[in-house]
TrEMBL record, chain B:
PANTHER family: GLUTAMYL-TRNA(GLN) AMIDOTRANSFERASE SUBUNIT C, MITOCHONDRIAL (PTHR15004:SF0). Belongs to the GatC family. Allows the formation of correctly charged Asn-tRNA(Asn) or Gln-tRNA(Gln) through the transamidation of misacylated Asp-tRNA(Asn) or Glu-tRNA(Gln) in organisms which lack either or both of asparaginyl-tRNA or glutaminyl-tRNA synthetases. The reaction takes place in the presence of glutamine and ATP through an activated phospho-Asp-tRNA(Asn) or phospho-Glu-tRNA(Gln). The keyword Nucleotide-binding applies. This is Aspartyl/glutamyl-tRNA(Asn/Gln) amidotransferase subunit C. It is an enzyme of class 6 (ligase). HAMAP family: GatC. Residues 72-98 are annotated as: Disordered. Heterotrimer of A, B and C subunits. Keywords: ATP-binding, Ligase, Nucleotide-binding, Protein biosynthesis.
Length: 502, 98
């Protein structure tokens, strides 16, 4: 591998303007594949979810999945696209064992959705409009395992093994128009776009869009043009950039690499490049085949898709509030600063907090538990917040118990630990672990008397008017009651016993 | 003037992973040129009022509900494979010539 020379990011941006094009593939969450009834469920045995159609056996015929088309229209509408009145599928011909048919069923010059936009919000609140060229329907490929080379790489492999369970799973490819004018913020825009698209896809309920599971993948096309020029430069296409952070890093790296090549008088080769997670670099892949090499032609085995206008309007009426607008609304309702809202979004906690508030918790309390104790727990166990074994309704119940004075924060944390450990719902954990706040005077009285007797000097100070010293006695009571005493009531009792006004 | 050159046939043969001798290229280029010429005559009779057709039936929106249907068993799926390993289709080295 040759070492790639880079120029500094600042120097690159001083001389050149970046132009980006982002292609995002989203695997739909349909129950079956795009053109056959094979299950899409994860975790099956290799080649247990195939049939003559997705194996490309002679005589088999594909039939389109209605939910796949509906999802594509929903995505198109949410991206403010026009929906084609009539469109066809096309065969994209290529030889590679990941598709047993030797072509991928896709759409070519008649995408189902085109000419839209997505407004994305950068971390400082600036809104940037990314224009959408098209969104089209296609199918995923099989999974290759390369054997005999170093660490599963295709280079040096002696042979490869194919599992076609994934072949035929519905994909929507969403392609932006060239993104210009982002300047030094281009990598940030790329990341924000993919993040916003992911939120949108999830809000539509058409896919979980989990990038770490390959349900959403991004290709980053990037070129530079000299400042002041209007003519786009030659682009590179960095394939399969599969996390938000990687999208930003890949764009940044390519800006620096292109600038180094161009400013030393070289020219950019149009090619695909591979992104490396470990150091954030890209390396050359195969030289890009020209579009006509795929010899697209209309798929003769599928009839055209012509979404009726009335149906399209019906779907438009079911669209949820756009995630960016919803976030801004919730931010105002919750009274949260923009930066904290960004942190909530990054933690994947927006929906969880919203659901907790809906279940009756005050926003501040819902935020406190999800972003505090629960975020810590998720972090420690290497899971995302929504994978924790606690529901928003349960968090709301804990918040309610705290608000009612039946739990204090310390006890509430123990309740959370209990719920996460599978000990039952919050009330059950309170019951089983005996975690109720003790505010009963009879039960507290003995502990208060004991604290006063054991800290005579402190008690004298308080009698003498130093009311602030009462904290030490409250602490002593909390200690003997193992944190379960109602601190406010304890303070009242102590002051009462010592004959001092609070 | 429609038609196909010998170079284009060679290019298509490469894309289709067909190894053709020089003699075969000459032979097929001539034949394909004749076929393309014959098909091109259709456009002489088709005027602006005849839309291009990709399907003989006037059908649209033939779809199926998103309901799981039984798949083949892995054994059935692999029964026609020339080679298999770990319940997967085994294929020869992919990169090598390049």
């Amino acid at each position: 591998m040759t070492v790639t020379d880079l120029v500094s990011y600042e120097d690159a941006l001083a001389s050149y303007d970046p132009v980006m094009g982002l292609e995002v593939h989203v695997e739909l969450g349909t129950k079956t594949k795009m053109f056959c009834g094979c299950s899409t469920e994860l975790g099956a045995q290799p080649n247990a979810q195939t049939c003559p159609t997705c194996l490309g056996l002679p005589g088999s015929l594909p039939v389109v999945n209605a939910t796949g088309v509906e999802s594509a229209v929903k995505i198109g509408l949410a991206l403010h696209c026009e929906i084609a009145e009539w469109c066809r599928f096309a065969r994209k011909n290529y030889f590679y064992p990941d598709m047993p048919k030797n072509f991928q069923t896709s759409q070519y010059d008649e995408p189902i959705a085109f000419d839209g936009y997505l407004d994305v919000q950068l971390e400082d609140g600036e809104v940037f409009r990314v224009e959408i060229e098209r969104a089209h329907m296609e199918e995923d490929t099989g999974k290759s395992t390369h054997v005999g080379g170093a660490t599963g790489r295709i280079h040096g492999a002696s042979h490869s093994l194919l599992d076609y369970n994934r072949a035929g799973i519905p994909l929507i490819e969403i392609v932006t128009k060239p993104i210009t004018g982002a300047g030094e913020r281009a990598p940030e825009v790329a990341k924000a776009y993919v993040a916003e698209l992911r939120e949108l896809i999830r809000a539509l309920g058409v896919s979980e869009a989990r990038m770490e599971m390959g349900q959403m993948r991004c290709d980053v096309n990037l070129s530079l043009m000299p400042k002041g020029s209007e003519r786009f430069g030659t682009r590179s296409e960095t394939k399969n950039v599969n996390s938000l952070r990687s999208v930003e890093r890949a764009a940044r790296f390519e800006i620096q690499r292109h600038a180094a090549v161009l400013s030393s008088g070289g020219s950019i080769v149009q090619e695909t490049r591979h992104f490396h997670e470990d150091d954030g670099s890209t390396t050359s892949g195969r030289v890009k085949e020209e579009a006509e090499d795929y010899r697209y032609f209309p798929e003769p085995d599928l009839v055209p898709v012509a979404p009726p206008r009335a149906w399209v309007e019906e779907l438009r009426a079911t669209l949820p509030e756009l995630p960016r607008l919803r976030r801004n609304r919730l931010r105002e309702e919750w009274g949260v600063p923009a930066l904290e809202m960004q942190a909530i979004l990054n933690a994947g906690a927006v929906d969880l907090i919203a659901a907790t508030v809906e279940a009756g918790a005050r926003p501040a309390a819902a935020r406190k538990w999800w972003m505090g104790e629960l975020a810590r727990s998720a972090n420690e166990s290497g899971r995302s917040l929504d994978e924790l074994d606690i529901t928003p309704a349960q968090v709301a119940r804990i918040a309610e118990l705290v608000a009612a004075g039946e739990l204090n924060d310390k006890l509430a944390r123990q309740v959370i630990v209990g719920v996460l450990a599978g000990e039952g719902d919050p009330d059950t954990v309170v019951e089983k672990r005996g975690l109720k706040v003790v505010s009963d005077d009879g039960a507290l009285g003995a502990a208060v008397d004991e604290a006063i007797a054991g800290n005579a000097a402190v008690a004298d100070k308080i009698r003498g008017g130093k009311v602030a010293a009462v904290g030490a006695l409250v602490g002593a009571v909390m200690k003997t009651t193992r944190g379960q005493a109602d601190a406010a009531r304890v303070k009242e009792l102590i002051l009462q016993r010592l004959g001092v006004e609070g | 003037m429609p038609g196909i050159t010998r170079e284009e046939v060679a290019h298509l043969a490469r894309l289709a992973r067909l190894e053709l001798s020089g003699e075969e290229l000459d032979h097929f280029a001539g034949q394909l040129d004749d076929i393309i010429g014959a098909v091109a005559r259709v456009s002489e009779v088709a005027d602006q009022d005849v839309p291009p057709t990709s399907h003989p039936l006037p059908l649209t929106n033939v779809m199926r509900a998103d309901e799981v249907r039984p798949s083949l068993t892995p054994e059935q799926a692999l029964s026609g494979a020339p080679a298999q390993e770990q319940q997967r289709f085994k294929v020869p080295q992919i990169l090598g010539e390049e």
